[in-house]
Structures are given as C-alpha cells and as structure tokens.
Amino acid sequence: xxPLLLVLLLALILFGAGFAVKALWWVAVIVLVLWLLxxxxxxKGGTGRWYRW
Length: 53
Hints:
By secondary structure, the protein is mainly α. The chain has one helix at residues 2-40. This is Hydrophobic protein.
C-alpha cells in the first residue's frame, strides 16, 4: 500500500510541477510581448526608455 501511495504522490507532484512550468512559460511570453510593445511604442524624444527603472 505504501509504494502505491508514493507512486501516486510522485505522479501528483510531477503533474503539478508540469502545470506550474507551463503556466510560468505563458507568463514569460506575456511579459515579453508587453516589453516588446513598450519598446516599439516608446516616446520618440528624450531618453528613449519607456520604463522608470
């Protein structure tokens, strides 16, 4: 019974990690698109940086 529970626990952990990694990839893609849009739409005059940091 214990090995079966360990395998089930391992499967749940791997499934959760896979979902988290996929979600993080989507977040990274969205941030990259927003950064590129801000880079393209930056003001023509001045320093050329559209962000504050």
